[in-house]
Design goal:
Blueprint lengths: L3 H5 L13 E6 L3 E7 L19 H17 L9 E11 L8 E12 L4 E10 L2 E12 L1
Antiparallel strand pairs: 1-2, 2-4, 3-6, 4-5, 5-6
Length: 142
Amino acid sequence: MIDREGIKKIIPHRDPMLLIDEVIELQEEKSIKTSFYVSPEREIFKGHFPKEPVLPGVYTVEIMAQTSDVLLLSMERYANKVPLFIGIDKVKFLKKIIPGDTITITSEILLEKAEKAVVTCEAKVYKDDELACVGNVTLAMR
């Protein structure tokens, strides 16, 4: 397991945009599982939406990207690179993520173009062990 301080040693994200609390499992060069507590105290919920708060889809996609970032930046060839989010494909939002939820996120490498340092990962977000979101995240490691 890797905690937030350990995650900060791997990826460049910091609060309020560090959206991973811990790495639960890491299979080098293959897959990762992380978790994130959706704190009701997050500023975003004041406006999205005041009477029925829900985590914005773009935050969910960012969480998927950051999980993929940790997987890739843990690989020796990408260590200390900056992960640039260059695409998202086949995204499906299946369940609302609301304040107070703890979500788990998985990411698995689908395709790597090593000569261009571009990697596509399939990421999934689970709420209460049910699939809440799925999509393919493409990152350029620079």
